Amino acid sequence: GLVRIVNFDARCYSESVAAIEQLLEQGATALVFDVRNNPGGYKTELVKLLDYLLPEGDLFLSENYKGETSVDRSDAKYLDVPMAVLVNGRSYSAAEFFAAALSEYEAAITIGQQTTGKGYFQNTFLLSDGSAVAISTGRYKTPKGVSLEGVGITPDVVVTVDEITDYYIYAGTLPAMEDPQILAAIDALKGK
């Protein structure tokens, strides 16, 4: 089953779980999550989805500039099916941490191209003239305490695409069975 997550904004968790459950009811035996071109979103949506997918343990670490750390954890219930995550150079923020958490738990294989490497979170402050400013106020880390800042994720299986293919992937017009990264994910999941 293929689940495209275009961002981690409101309803990401509920819509992703609904799609997963529908695919499993239709007979899917493995899942491919596509977070290519995903700009990130809300930590709360990310953590709820990771909790649904992963077993008990740390999911996400946040550290503010005072050095105070908070840890989001998962309960023991999890989804036990083979998984892969597609990433690229426009997989950003929450999309990177989604792939990193699944990878660190060895719950999914990552496929595609190097990600951006964003590791800071921002707070947005509204100004009196109606404009706003976003200021980085802390760092995020993976379940194992790794910062992705400036590093990103190197996929387990690197599959590069040419400019034209990348454009069609970005536009959402490339059929799944013509997408070399989706095909690589299917091959990687065979026999799992």
Descriptive notes:
The protein is α/β, with parallel strands linked by helices. It contains five helices and nine strands. The protein has helices at 12-25, 43-53, 94-104, 163-171, 180-189; strands at residues 2-4, 31-34, 57-64, 69-74, 83-87, 108-112, 120-126, 132-141, 157-158. Strands 1-2-5-6-9 form a five-stranded parallel beta sheet, with helices on both faces. The longest helix is centred in the first third of the chain and has 14 residues, at 12-25. The radius of gyration is 17 Å and the shape is globular. The chain starts with a strand and ends with a helix. The mean pLDDT is 95.
Blueprint (SSEs and pairs):
Elements: E1 2-4, H1 12-25, E2 31-34, H2 43-53, E3 57-64, E4 69-74, E5 83-87, H3 94-104, E6 108-112, E7 120-126, E8 132-141, E9 157-158, H4 163-171, H5 180-189
Parallel strand pairs: 1-2, 2-5, 5-6, 6-9
Antiparallel strand pairs: 3-4, 3-8, 7-8
